[in-house]
Write a structure and sequence with these properties.
This protein is an alpha+beta fold. The chain folds into five domains: about 15-75, no CATH class; about 95-210, Tetratricopeptide repeat domain (Serine Threonine Protein Phosphatase 5, Tetratricopeptide repeat, Alpha Horseshoe), CATH 1.25.40; about 220-330, Tetratricopeptide repeat domain (Serine Threonine Protein Phosphatase 5, Tetratricopeptide repeat); about 330-505, Tetratricopeptide repeat domain (Serine Threonine Protein Phosphatase 5, Tetratricopeptide repeat, Alpha Horseshoe), CATH 1.25.40; about 505-665, Alpha-Beta Plaits, CATH 3.30.70. About 70% of the residues lie in helices and about 5% in strands. The protein has 31 helices and eight strands. It has helices at about 20-25, 30-35, 40-55, 60-70, 75-90, 95-110, 115-130, 135-150, 155-170, 175-190, 195-210, 215-230, 235-255, 255-270, 275-290, 295-315, 315-330, 335-345, 345-360, 365-380, 385-400, 405-420, 425-440, 445-460, 465-480, 485-505, 520-525, 530-550, 570-590, 615-625, 635-640; strands at about 505-515, 555, 560-565, 595-610, 610-615, 630-635, 650-655, 660-665. Helix 9 runs antiparallel to helix 10 (about 175-190). The radius of gyration is 31 Å and the shape is elongated.
């Protein structure tokens, strides 16, 4: 939803007739009112600002100026005009209108995260009219109190106050107040499990919005919250209906701010349908547009969606950058960031992140439901099947209250993962086959491919190699079409590994790299846990990225280092040099970098799936152990294949297991 300022039209506003329009030619105040009546927001803002500079705008006209400022993308001027309107109404003795504005301003600050200032404005409203009363201003004050109660977890109070605001809005025939309160009450009911009742309230408010029964701002906020609720429930069909209705309203009313929000929601639905590139382009455009409106909430949604798309495409750096932007604007980066960590092989970090996010969601059942499938996947990767079973049981109980097709399909996939981990192969296959049909009906090709890849694993474990290959090849085709690099690579490796298992182990010639941080235990003690974890995270990401950039493959992590394989000796040497230079540059820029030793050896090894074994791998590991801090130690076999590499004179080294001494040289990299 857009930023929750409330620009309820002034009580005295009326349609401007033709005679007034004619008289406005030489009067900026009248001309501004005419421009506002036809929703020419830019002209209205300029004309009313001109009249304001001449002095003497009434409280009502200052409210109109604030409204025009918002839609003209001048949020600084909007806040100033609203606060001056409050003062003018207060000075004129119009306590009711001043109290309404104080409550409205309180909501603005609250949704910007400035809760102390919001509380101060709410107390101003209370000072003017008290808590007891049935005027529309009392209704807005109840709405402020309801939203504050929800933030602090006082749900019973939040619901009671929202119901009071609805009752007052209805009695006072204040459509904006009624819609705001119905939307707030509906969101509370959805979050606490009364989903059907909550949606009914939000739909009642939203139909008034798109029919033009509310003020422009209230219409946009109400409709966008409706769409956001549908998205959160993964009810994409319902979301699409409201997106279309809201866009038509915005076009009809010449509202530029809210189409940016609608564009985000439309792009989110497009991403589910597999149009990732187009969706990312639309999201980038929308987040840029919304920056001028100070619409932190919708922007956060947009950046999160960008991050998730980039994650699926394997752009982890880009994903993290977008997710940081979402987090800075108040949205949790989870579960997308935890899934990035999982894809990077950092299973412990992924588990800690997603578990913390689930623990933080203490009352919103649907917020938990959006996290639980990732918690299941990560828990299984972490070997914690009991934890995964607990998460799937909770997910099933939540979606029973609103079984949308996407929620049901996602729950089946998560259950299939758990059953596969528990060894119930027929049960897993049954759930996954059903989920594929359901995801097809939703129109989510990526989810279909993911379910196929998982089904292939269950079938293969049950001895059905032919059907497993069939499902996996179908998944590979879809991942390739979508551009899902990470899933594509994993599925292709799995298919190759299956073929290799059937044909027996293969022999491959590779250049192996072993890296290790020298004195890591002492470093961890000296830096402290938090600083050490940050440094280790940077070190891990840097090495993984440079290995991948050089065409290598990280075979596994070895404590504080890595075991990687390269098809080319030259590529392995270049990657090793790039790693040492990155460490040096980091030390120069930040004041410290760990000392890393690197060993390189080119040899034949036994390839089983994605793993390598044999005496050659053992020799490579020993070369890495013999290297000193900040040294690249390479065998003569590696240097001979790499070509012209600046290095020291070779020296023989006795390596246990090798039949003869191995000639080693230090590669010059600085």
């Amino acid at each position: 939803m857009a930023r929750m300022t409330d620009l309820r039209p002034p009580a005295t506003e009326a349609a401007v007739d033709a005679a007034t329009a004619g008289a406005a030619a030489n009067d900026p105040l009248l001309a501004g009112r005419v421009a506002r009546s036809r929703h020419d927001w830019g002209s209205a803002f300029e004309l009313l600002s001109e009249a304001d500079r001449a002095g003497g705008l009434s409280g009502d006209d200052l409210e109109t100026l604030a409204e025009a400022a918002f839609f003209a993308a001048r949020p600084d001027a909007e806040v100033d005009a609203k606060e001056r309107a409050f003062k003018r109404h207060e000075a004129d003795g119009n306590a009711l209108r001043a109290a309404y504005l104080a409550a409205s301003i309180a909501r603005s600050y609250s949704f910007s995260g400035k809760h102390s200032i919001a509380s101060a404005w709410a107390r101003r409203a209370e000072r003017l009219i008290g808590r007891d009363g049935e005027t529309y201003a009392h209704g807005y004050l109840a709405l402020v109190d309801s939203e504050a109660a929800a933030v602090t977890g006082r749900l019973d109070d939040a619901v009671e106050l929202a119901e009071r605001a609805v009752a007052i809005g209805t009695k006072a025939a204040d459509r904006d107040l009624t819609a705001y309160a119905q939307t707030n009450l509906g969101a509370l009911k959805i979050g606490t499990g009364s989903t059907a009742d909550g949606l009914a309230l939000m739909e009642e408010a939203s139909i008034a919005a798109v029919n033009g029964d509310l003020s422009p701002f209230a219409s946009g906020v109400t409709a966008c919250r409706m769409i956001g609720a549908c998205r959160d429930l993964t009810d994409y069909r319902r979301a699409s209906e409201w997106i279309e209705a809201t866009e038509k309203y915005c076009d009809r009313e010449s509202l530029e701010g809210f189409p940016g929000v609608c564009r985000i929601h439309r792009a989110e639905v497009s991403a589910v349908g597999g149009a990732w590139e187009r969706a990312e382009h639309e999201l980038e455009r929308a987040t840029t547009e919304l920056a001028t409106f100070n619409a932190a909430g919708p922007q956060a949604d947009g950046f999160y969606a960008i991050g998730d798309i980039r994650r699926l495409r394997g752009d982890f750096d880009g994903a993290e950058a977008a997710l940081r932007e979402a987090h800075a604007r108040g949205r949790s980066p989870q579960p997308a960031l935890a899934l990035v960590r999982l894809a990077q092989g950092k299973v412990k970090a992924a588990a800690a992140a997603v578990d913390a996010a689930v623990a933080d969601e203490t009352w919103d059942r649907w917020a938990r439901a959006r996290l639980l499938p990732a918690q299941v996947e990560i828990a299984i990767a972490n070997g914690d099947i009991v934890h995964a079973r607990s998460a799937i049981d909770e997910l099933g109980s939540i979606i029973a209250g609103y079984p949308s097709p996407a929620l049901v399909a996602g729950c089946r996939v998560a259950l299939g993962r758990v059953l596969l981990a528990e060894g119930d192969l027929p049960g897993a296959a049954r759930e996954l086959r059903t989920s594929i049909k359901e995801w097809r009906e939703v129109g989510a090709p990526y989810e279909v491919a993911r379910a196929r890849a998982l089904l292939a694993r269950a079938l293969r474990a049950d001895g059905d190699e032919d059907d497993a290959d069939l499902e996996l090849r179908a998944a590979i085709d879809e991942f390739g079409r979508l551009g899902g690099r990470v899933d594509l690579d994993a599925a292709e490796r799995e298919l190759r590994a299956a073929a290799e298992r059937r044909s027996g182990p293969q022999t491959a010639r590779r250049t192996f790299m072993f890296t290790d941080i020298v004195g890591s235990t002492n470093l961890a003690e000296a830096l402290g846990d938090e600083a050490w974890e940050r440094l280790l995270r940077w070190h891990d990401d840097m090495i993984r990225n440079l290995v991948a950039k050089g065409g290598g493959q990280v075979v596994n992590s070895t404590g504080d280092g890595f075991f990687a394989a390269f098809d080319s000796a030259a590529a392995a040497v270049d990657a090793a040099i790039a790693i040492q230079r990155a460490l040096r540059d980091h030390g120069e820029s930040s004041g410290f970098a760990p000392s890393v030793r690197i060993g390189l050896h080119t040899t034949a090894a036994t390839l089983r799936g994605d793993d390598y074994s044999g005496i050659g791998v053992h020799v490579a590991a020993r070369i890495g152990a013999l290297a000193g801090g900040r040294e690249i130690l390479a065998s003569s076999d590696t240097l001979a294949e790499a070509g012209d590499v600046p290095a020291s004179e070779p020296r023989p080294a006795e390596i246990r297991g090798a039949t003869a001494p191995v000639n080693l040289a230090t590669v010059s990299w600085s």
